[in-house]
UniProtKB/TrEMBL annotation:
Keyword Transmembrane helix applies: yes
Keywords: Endoplasmic reticulum, Membrane, Transmembrane, Transmembrane helix
Annotated TM spans: 20-42, 54-79, 99-132, 153-183
Originating species: Rangifer tarandus platyrhynchus
InterPro entries reported in the protein's UniProt record: DER1, Rhomboid-like_sf
Record-given protein name: Derlin
Summary of the function given for this chain in its UniProt record: Functional component of endoplasmic reticulum-associated degradation (ERAD) for misfolded lumenal proteins. May act by forming a channel that allows the retrotranslocation of misfolded proteins into the cytosol where they are ubiquitinated and degraded by the proteasome.
């Protein structure tokens, strides 16, 4: 019964958050069970473009290391802030949310190649946290009950804690930088004099992922209009 309740609760999580979280957990489980090796997952441009192992462009975002405190720490932040974004500023805009993932993933991959970074899931987490924090500047956040501060300080606290856990500071800095680029292009620049939106979600994503918008000029047929129940 407990598993059924947990499964029911998980199915109520928004689609993108549910899919990404499940993919991360399943990837880690496969590594723990020795069905996969981290060497099959990490980003390697030579293997991607010369050996056509294109799955590495995705799997390097799904592996957060072996089971342990660091893994659960990252999963907590992924699940919480990905969900808060999807249910908040991206509510009803699944295509825009997926496009943010694609934009961030592409930019991280290019910059990660320059920095010789092999796994970028933690950078993606930092990006999600950064975008949420900039869109929620007045929210006060409790960091494991030890510190309380306003949301814009959260990415930096997360980076400091990640360094204490032994992670490279470059990974979190990359995520924060990409998150800032997205935030600037999406939220800041369009509101500047002469500015405009540069990140336009492709129409095929909207067609595929978003519910069709109602036509404001549509007039329902008489039999479709609400009225008294006819006997």
């Amino acid at each position: 019964m407990a598993w059924q309740g947990l499964a029911t609760e998980f199915l109520q999580v928004p689609a993108v958050t549910r899919t990404y979280t499940a993919a991360c957990i399943l990837t880690t489980a496969a590594v723990q069970l020795e069905l996969l090796s981290p060497f099959q997952l990490y980003f390697n441009p030579h293997l991607v473009f010369r050996k056509f192992q294109v799955w590495r462009l995705i799997t390097n975002f799904l592996f957060f290391g072996p089971l342990g405190f660091s893994f659960f720490f990252n999963m907590l932040f992924v699940f919480r802030y990905c969900r808060m974004l999807e249910e908040g500023s991206f509510r009803g805009r699944t295509a825009d949310f997926v496009f943010m993932f694609l934009f961030g993933g592409l930019l991280m991959t290019l910059l990660g190649f320059l920095g010789s970074l092999f796994f970028l899931g933690q950078a993606l987490t930092a990006m999600l946290v950064y975008v949420w924090s900039r869109r929620s500047p007045g929210v006060r956040v409790s960091f494991f009950g030890l510190l309380t501060f306003r949301a814009p300080f959260l990415p930096w606290a997360l980076m400091g804690f990640s360094v204490l856990l032994g992670s490279s500071i470059l990974v979190d800095l990359l995520g924060i930088a990409v998150g800032h680029v997205y935030y600037f292009l999406e939220d800041v620049f369009p509101n500047q004099p002469g500015g405009k939106r540069l990140l336009l979600t492709p129409s095929f994503l909207k067609l595929l992922l978003d519910a069709p918008e109602e036509d404001p000029n549509y007039r329902p047929l008489p039999e479709e209009q609400p009225g008294p129940l006819q006997q």
